[in-house]
Amino acid sequence: MSENLPSAKRLRGFYPERKLAEESKIDRAAVTLLGNATRRLRAKPERYGGIVSAVRAAGDPLRGMEDAALGKYARELRGEILARGLNLPLAARVFAIAREFADRRIGMRHFDVQLIGGWVLLHGMVAEMETGEGKTLTATLPACAAALSGVPVHVVTVNDYLARRDADWMRPVYEGFGLTVGVIQTGMSLDDRRRAYRCDVTYCTNKEVAFDYLKDRLTMGRRPGEIQARVDRLHGVGSKVGRLLLRGLCYAIVDEADSVLIDEARTPLIISGSGESTYEAEVYRRALDLADALEPGRDYILREERREVEITPRGKIRLEELGEQAGGLWRRRQRREELVRQSLTAQHLFRLDRE
Asked: Model pTM?
């Protein structure tokens, strides 16, 4: 299962993020069928129970260690993980050390169910835990393991208070490994945000990290290539790359995932900024022209209660015809439909100076 664990070696480019591949109807049907079967297999608890015995074995020698010796042992583990990559034995050692630090420094010790929860989260899956089972403490396990492997970690929660509280509460555990901890709060300056995001582990809210990502997209404009980004970085903080806030979207642990990813995701986040050239303005003007060429009710449907626009199959065919005439990026289905959908949303679902 080590192929599913976080690794800095898998991070590509100056701003890593997962790309959404275009899918046909057949692709989506296959993903649905195979995904359901895969989820049933991966969701069996016995697949992850082995972490408990591994952590116990790794933790036995730690009980008698002095604090200084434990700290030295923990910090030396980072080099080994960077060289070899995360696997079950190394992750078990991280979990065991984190449990020992938590016990000594904040008076809390991870239970077996939290070890399993941390192992599940480290594999990029959802771990359902009841209130009072210690989700905040559980999150330190995958956060430490991912950060020690060289992957920037975001711990995402629902409000500023929880982000600050959890970061301060769990900070002694991270600092035992020599890891730095940052916190993003509403109203912070851009420089303070950059410093916080450059920490090994950053606590933030879903809205703050989403808006900071959108700010980065505005800063980058048309995404530069890797060579161009490397050259740009030589100019320091004043360059485009130097002005970016995040280090990419590498690995996130989401608290209250149902609220963050479902309930609050219904509200779109919109940000604006001044363009650096006429290119963007021309793109949006053309998107508005294409949107105006569509017939409401037949080419697209407004879902006002959910603030969504659905482009119908008839509308997609019409856009394909118009895109072929326009040429350039308008021949690319996903980008074309995304821009037109944004134009229709702005025209019909938002009011100036009110939303």
From this structure: 0.71
Residue 19 — left, alpha, or beta (φ > 0 → left; ψ -120 to 50 → alpha)? beta
Indicate if 17 and 107 belong to the same structural domain.
yes
What CATH number corresponds to the domain at position 237? 3.40.50.300
Q: Which residues pair with 205 in a beta bridge?
A: 157
Number of compact structural domains in the chain: 2
* Within a domain: 271: no
Mean pLDDT of the chain: 85
Q: Using 50, 70 and 90 to split pLDDT, how confident is the model at 273?
A: low
pLDDT tens for each residue of 154-175: 999 999 999 999 999 999 999 9
* pLDDT tens track for 290-336: 999 999 999 999 988 777 889 999 999 999 999 998 888 888 888 89
Q: Residue 337 sits in which domain range?
A: 278-349
